[in-house]
Fold each of these.
Amino acid sequence: MELLLAITIGVLVSTSVYLMLDRNVLRFLFGLVLLSNAVNLLIFTGGRLTAGAPPLIDAGEYAPTGVVANALPQALVLTAIVIGFGLLAFTLALVYRTYMTLGTVNSDEMRVAEPADESKLDTGRLGMGKANPAKPATGQEAGI
Amino acid sequence: MSWLLVYPIIIPLLTAVLAYLFRNSPAGRWISVAGTVALLMASIMLMAEVLEQGVVAAQMSNWQAPFGITLVADLLGAVMVVITAITGLATVIYTLSEIPERMERLGFHALLQMLMVGVVGAFLTGDLFNLYVWFEVMLISSFGLLVLGGTREQLDGGIKYVMLNLVSTIMFLAGIGLLYGLTGTLNMADLHLAVRGVENTGLLTTIAVMFMVAFGVKAAMFPLFFWLPASYHTPPVAVSAIFAGLLTKVGVYALIRMFTLVFDQDVAFTHTILLWLAVVTMVTGVLGAAAMNDFRRILSFHIISQIGYMVLGLALYTPLGLMGAVFYLVHHIIVKANLFFVAGVAKRIAGSTDLARIGGLYAHAPLLAFLFLIPAFSLAGFPPLSGFWAKYVVVKAALDLEMWFVAGVALGVGLLTIFSMTKIWGSAFWPAHPDGIKPRLSDLPTFDRVALMLPIIALAALTCLIGLFPEPFVQFAERSANQLLDPTDYVTTVLGVQP
């Protein structure tokens, strides 16, 4: 069982690394999701696998009797899933908003904050609370 | 259970809730100010307690360590909380003038307070998984603060910041999972004991390097720093300042904590990597700064360069080296935040942070010029300012180990730092404004002038204070370094038994 999970984790990690090497930030994000799931499985496996022994304490007892499964990794994974979900939701919204504003999801084309010609960087008006009008682009242009 | 450890976390949390509820009224921002003052008082109380007792620990819900979550403050943790509160207060006062009402309505102050919750939590926790959770609290608030306002530059920088920091967090989580699988515990004090019984030392070192990468991204070490210069110059100045002051330093703090308390088994391997990374970080950071032509971008690259000094102190792994690292952390937070504040005022009165487009600050705002010179010289390491002592201790520690090359690089980087500072001076302060504007502080409304200048003056005074009377601060850093190198007190206080 450990071997099977180890292989699964390995496949997930390599797939996610492949996705994360893409210039498309959306693919990068998908890679990130896969990677966080791989890590969740890693924590789960790291806590040792004990099949068929639920960590239940009998009535009147203070500690479980006999061998039971480790409940802690499940709590950790649950926390990590919740946090990961929140971050994913935020990041998806951020990617969408960036796409609407910059008109691209290609990270090579995102040079607004660090333009090749530095004199084009206009930080003078930054942070003054003036939103830029959104410049939507078609899906075809951005390659999604 | 000591409530002193809970107050610094719960006060900003409550403030965040209240500030969010009152985000549509002017009361919101004053709640934020009041909450940060309360945080400062709570942190000073905690500091007094730690100075008296050495290490203070509290078990949440009375679950005995190592089974529950432990909050613990040693000297390093306590001083970081105090400095967080000071920087936080300075930032909140600065925002009174800088942050437009539109952003306050979007919950700016709630995010700012949540950022402080995360930072303080990271400094006070004694549990590895809990540290991960505080990192996430800090991260998600910083994401919000970074892109709030939604300009093109902010979104562009935000994408890189968010993506690279998420990779680092997942790496951290993977390290936690493997370390737990290896030792069966997550309590840091318990880990200190547990790693001694681990037979598979190769795997332990591998995990140590995973943590090094994860915290290296947070701390903006070479070659993992690229998110920082991509994003730190894009948000409002107050946000830049608190990020520059605190966020990378949380990474350095976590490095110091983990590589003194847990990963001290294979020092020859791990700390040698840290040493050379620190040297390269110093050099690349300062060279980047020398190449930039924007006030805030120069300062962003300086952060990276300065991180090198702190990591160098840790990598030397001698009492003097760690003492330098602790001293440097405290000094750097104050100075760096202050420089960003100055950049913000320069932008406000001269119209830009692009050095080619501003000027005349020395002629028309001499007070600002003077207040720029104090942190700028301090950062470069001029006596008698705080940066001199910080650099002196780190370089001395390197010389004591007869690492001539490392010490030489550290000194040379100081020289290049002052070069890039003269670049700012030579185009923003010295010559006349290219558009003929006369940037006067007196043109600002009185309220804005007070709100912008008060934090700058206070932090500059603090830099001078540390510089002129370094004795108590040096002694404190020395005690803290000894505590880090010999964590017996820490372990005993947390676990309640003799190791």
Amino acid sequence: MRGRTPLPLAILAALGAVFVVLPLLALVIRAPWGDLGSALSGAGASTALRLSVEVSLAATMLSLILGVPLAWVLARSSIPGRSVLRAVVIVPLVLPPVVGGIGLLAALGRGGVVGRWLFEAFGLQLTFTMWGAIAATTFVSMPLVVLATEAGLRSIDPRFERAAAAMGARPGYAIRRVVLPMLAPQLAAGAVLAWARALGEFGATITFAGNLAGRTQTLPLAVYEARVTDPGGAILLSLLLVVLSIVVLVVMRGRITAAR
Amino acid sequence: MTLHAAFTARRGDFDVIAELDVADGETLAVLGPNGAGKSTVVDVLAGTLAPSGGTIEIDGERVDTLPAERRAIGVCFQDDLLFPHLSALENVAFPLRARGEARSQTHVRAAALLARLAPTVDPRTSPSMLSGGERQRVALARALAPEPRLLLLDEPFANVDVSARTALRALVREVTAGFDGATVLVAHDPIDALTLADRVTLLEAGRQTQTGTPEEIRAAPGSVYAADLVGVNLFTGVLEPLPDGAARLVTARGAIIVAPQTRLDRIVPAVATLKPIDVALHAAEPEGSPRNVVHGRVEEIAIDGERARIRVDGEPPLTAEITAGSVARLRLTRGADVWASFKAVEVSVVLTEEEAVPGTLSG
């Protein structure tokens, strides 16, 4: 039954809604629509857009490849220190991204703990490359995949895996043919959340991978740079990100309701 | 094909000691109340729980050291555990596919098996669209698909509603009769164990308290629990339809009226059970018209606390369970005249011939 909304509540709710909608509306109002064609067709914008899509999709894939096995270990295994591992794995969710970037620099930068060795042994350098942007983005996105997948695994009756084994399925076959298909809705939800997070990633990327147009400058970084030199262009690029985000949201709505 | 199993298993602070020997084509029922350790026995045999000691041999081969996926066992799980993301056909084909057989072959065999055991099920249907009875039929087909050497049926009737149970029992009876390996049927309903198994072993609190044929256990229950569990009246005979729609089960000693049976159009062999608690005793011929009244003499009175079991030597012989107070009120003594009555609907009937249930195994 719908009751009447108390006045103070209604006022605060209206303020809340305005607070969310106003910046988006302001972007539309202030956008130099006349420059739309030149701003979006410019080499800078299309490069940043392509890089953003590539980096975010690659980071989502990587998050799935590494995050799903991690979730499986957290949900199904009995390794010692499992609860500590779970806490550590979700830390990037609450960590300021810039701190993540500094951490990645210390670990994988050219002079970093592992990065120095990677560079000396293989000549591999992540900083200032697209792979660096992907690494930084994966760092902040993967916990979302782990969380969604682990919750999904916990909702699957482990007797299905035992049943599969009793019917002749080796563990790998049981995971491929039973666990992963039953997990599909949660995997999709986790992937879309991770993708949305990856698309907006800024702090870790600019700190670790730098801000090089065509290599590490994704859309959010391009917006940040254009903010000073070309405020109108920054608004148009921002609107592009808004549109992308809304696309993600629409996709996600279907997926997340399917997962429930 | 035989099963020799003697093992101990531990789950939490509960332990089970079991010794099971099942011969070729034989069905052994493991009968016990919830919490007696039945699922522990299933898990150890299926290989999903490691025994803490002992051995399990199928056909002379040690399997307790093998992982679950390498034991030639067909399992029909309690709650069926059909994979929700696979169709009925894919579920039946799963054990074949898991063993690496090509899809083209497995699907032909799975389809044939499904058509025999679950003819009303569209092979493409998702398990979520099936009734409890249909799901259990698909699960049974899935258990038989890999041509196992041991068939493990874990309470196959637990989630099947009463109306579908008779047909499913007949199907299970038929499947186990036609199966040349050993069958272990886990049950908590004595009627399933008594009507489907060649031998029954009683499991109480993790220990086997008695093992024997249903007749042996009914004749000499080893404990009060055993008497409660299996001390049901069992009638074996032929079932014939009556003009009013009901049916009459004619046994070697007397006949009883049972409730109408669906699709009964001729005389078929059948087994029926009646719980002693559903039998009422009277000192004089009862008035009114209960369908079944048996006149006889009191053969035996066994009083256990508040309850008494009375054996009546009539046509057919019956066991009734009444209160100790009623024994005094009815002035029951050995040799006294007594009338036993029970309703037709209290009798559970199991048809023991395949053709009585259309759409099941043929030949």
